[in-house]
Amino acid sequence: MARKNLNDRRAAARRELEEAQAKFAKLQNEAAARIGKLAVRTGLTDLDLSDDEIKSTFEGIVARKEQENIL
User: Fold this and answer.
1) pTM here?
2) Cα 44 to the center of its chain, rounded Å
3) Is the Cβ–Cβ distance between 38 and 45 less than 8 Å?
């Protein structure tokens, strides 16, 4: 069986990359929906918080969890 030429291999690699990017985007959307649902359930959306305040709080959670994983 003949080996695919360079253009065919590049096209196949590009398709694989596009599929992986689409899968990643889907997973990102699922994660965002999960966090959004939790925010609604816990009343976070009822608080008068700026995006920066919420982002800072999330960053604090991440830092705490990362530190726990280090110890």
Assistant:
1) 0.72
2) 20
3) no
